[in-house]
Amino acid sequence: xxxxxxxxxxxxxxxxxxxxxxxxxxxxxxxxxxxxxxxxxxxxxxxxxxxxxxxxxxxxxxxxxxxxxxxxxxxxxxxxxxxxxxxxxxxxxxxxxxxxxxxxxxxxxxxxxxxxxxxxxxxxxxxxxxxxxxxxxxxxxxxxxxxxxxxxxxxxxxxxxxxxxxxxxxxxxxxxxxxxxxxxxxxxxxxxxxxxxxxxxxxxxxxxxxxxxxxxxxxxxxxxxxxxxxxxxxxxxxxxxxxxxxxxxxxxxxxxxxxxxxxxxxxxxxxxxxxxxxxxxxxxxxxxxxxxxxxxxxxxxxxxxxxxxxxxxxxxxxxxxxxxxxxxxxxxxxxxxxxxxxxxxxxxxxxxxxxxxxxxxxxxxxxxxxxxxxxxxxxxxxxxxxxxxxxxxxxxxxxxxxxxxxxxxxxxxxxxxxxxxxxxxxxxxx
Length: 430
Description:
Layout: H1 5-8, E1 15-18, E2 36-42, H2 45-61, E3 64-70, H3 72-84, E4 92-95, H4 97-106, H5 114-118, H6 130-135, E5 137-138, E6 141-142, E7 145-157, H7 158-163, H8 173-186, E8 191-194, H9 201-212, H10 229-245, H11 256-264, E9 268-274, H12 278-282, E10 293-296, E11 309-317, H13 324-334, H14 337-345, H15 353-357, H16 359-362, H17 367-379, H18 391-406, H19 411-428
Parallel strand pairs: 2-3, 2-4, 8-9
Antiparallel strand pairs: 1-3, 4-11, 5-6, 7-9, 7-10, 7-11
Helix pairs in contact: 9-10, 9-18, 10-18, 18-19
């Protein structure tokens, strides 16, 4: 979840944009709160779209919105400083539910939105997909509203499949392996499969393999399970697929950008990745294979097709804000049905079920990608990494067996070591 993210999140320095018209209707807010709303957002396509629509919101509400727009790392740094200090000068905050959501909720940085969401028929909270809602809830309370989602899908080369005699993409992981092997054998210099290999970076995309083999990072009681039989099979499969059918001299530090580059340069037949990055593969300016890229649902493993369906970004309200009623007005609008549909049409995958069922909402997506996403949202798992406070440390731990499997080391021994370290992290967080 790591992405719409790096493909669309800029690296520019912080830009503070005081946006908005002065209150057009005058009246302002009758709650005694400030008419100036301070919203902190990340550099993102979603943010650019919202900024363009802000005058409409300001005219409707009589509020003035001041947007602080930051790069991802700078956003995290600001939150670390201001939220830890209990600062009230952030009202609405854009945050990553799976990266810092548990930390923020546990530390009571996020206001409880349960009554505002579930008791609000006009907002239609039941329209939001179950997986993203799960990720923006904490201890049965809603603490955020998902605005951008990601699902893992299969990218593939239609021309290479046709050349090899295949009329359809693989429906199972077994088929994926056999098809990757055949295509690789028949096309010198072309890998059968490519995906992320970096220890931490690969965890999110590996997660769908883990779930589809019937495993998870923890069990129902919260115990580490990265050494379960299902997990061992998933690690061995993912690592083995890259070791045997991946690029020659494969490195073990690839994130999405390196893996995507191999695929878009025509050097691989199959690639599993977040759907939010699809334009990198279909844009002729970025991809040599743009006219022959296909998309398919994540292939089924022994437990079925269980890709992640997660919110990469959500909106929350700072618990220390003195402007919470107006902050909710912004979220209600920005994550409402109209804005979600507008974002969806602009290529930003939304968390509402209705936008995927609306022909307008999928008109800009390749049909096979829209079909794959529909399946993913129905079967999806609401997390793509361990749900812990120390996410970065956990990813390093559970990602090590991925690297070991790719390099041909003993998977059983690696998962045993990882499980012990991960269990210690879980115990330390209690």
